[in-house]
């Protein structure tokens, strides 16, 4: 993993998030952080057979999850020690993605108060755009206990 945090504090927060991600959906899907800063997040997924749908291309749910994960991480890096959740995710599938390396790039393009707006894209390792999207994220109060 080649992570490029901007500050030492950001590196510490990124390590905290990595610890929290162990055993979660993030871990299950197989995301790897390649670059993470307040300016941009880059993830990688080695898409395998279990990521494909019945016609042999990467499942749309996997591609949507990759965008959500990358954009979500971007919001968390901009708002350290706060909790952000997806309130809206728009996904456009523009070309089929096959098994192999996928690269996901995301950035926060706007923030105001408790709302952040992001853009993201999923490309094949040779630069073919497969999926692009936008997301709106909300800063929420931490949940201390689930009834």
UniProtKB/TrEMBL annotation:
Enzyme class of the recorded protein, top EC level: hydrolase
Keyword tags: Apoptosis, Cell membrane, Cell projection, Cytoplasm, Fatty acid metabolism, Hydrolase, Lipid metabolism, Membrane, Transit peptide
Membrane-protein topology: Peripheral membrane protein
Domain Thioesterase: 56-128
Catalytic reactions on record: (5Z,8Z,11Z,14Z)-eicosatetraenoyl-CoA + H2O = (5Z,8Z,11Z,14Z)-eicosatetraenoate + CoA + H(+); octanoyl-CoA + H2O = octanoate + CoA + H(+); decanoyl-CoA + H2O = decanoate + CoA + H(+); dodecanoyl-CoA + H2O = dodecanoate + CoA + H(+)
Keyword Cytoplasm: yes
Main location: membrane
Lineage: superkingdom: Bacteria
EC numbers on record: 3.1.2.2
InterPro entries (alphabetical): HotDog_dom_sf, PAAI_dom, THEM4/THEM5_acyl-CoA_thioest, Thioestr_dom
Subcellular localization, as worded in the UniProt entry: Cell projection, Ruffle membrane; Cytoplasm; Membrane
One Pfam family hit: 4HBT
Matches recorded under CDD domains: PaaI_thioesterase
Family indicated by similarity: Belongs to the THEM4/THEM5 thioesterase family.
The protein's name: Acyl-coenzyme A thioesterase THEM4
Organism: Paenibacillus arenosi
